[in-house]
Amino acid sequence: MAFIKSQTGNEALSNLYHAKFDLIITCVLSTLNGKGYKSSWFTLSPADGQCIIRLAFQEGICSMDSGRDKNGNFHDILGVKFKDSDDCRNLYFNIEPAAKRMFGPKG
Questions:
Q1: How far apart are CA 15 and CA 89, in angstroms?
Q2: Coil, strand, or helix at residue 45?
């Protein structure tokens, strides 16, 4: 929305959408560090991990997987290739609450 509003000349709304995006990303990234199931980032939507990698980190996704932790919580496991590395590093996103909202309590 920020991009669209900017393209249509509405800089005030563009800035507002940028600020909202920054707040949401800051909240998600403050939950833990995303390095494994135990430190998985808590997200609001199943697409959040991809948005964070592409828009906030401005990096590419090199792999996509999913899994469940020992408590049965559903996670997206997305590989990111940072510009300063040759590795495809996995980042973990807890999407269990979003999956329950989308598919019901039993999935």
A1: 32
A2: coil
Q: Which residue's structure tokens are 């964070």?
A: 52
Residue in 83, 74, 82, 77 with CA at minimum distance from that of residue 34: 77
CB 21 within 8 A of CB 2: yes
Judge contact between 29 and 79, C-beta under 8 A.
Answer: no
* pTM for this model (two decimals): 0.84
Q: How many residues does the chain have?
A: 107
Q: What is the pLDDT along the chain (107 residues), one digit of tens a residue?
A: 999 999 999 999 999 999 998 998 999 999 999 999 999 999 988 889 999 999 999 999 999 999 999 999 999 999 999 888 889 999 999 999 888 887 776 65
List the one residue out of 3, 67, 55 whose CA is nearest residue 24: 55
Please answer whether residues 91 and 53 qualify as being in contact, where contact means their C-beta atoms are separated by less than 8 angstroms: yes
Contact, 21 vs 55, CB < 8 A? yes
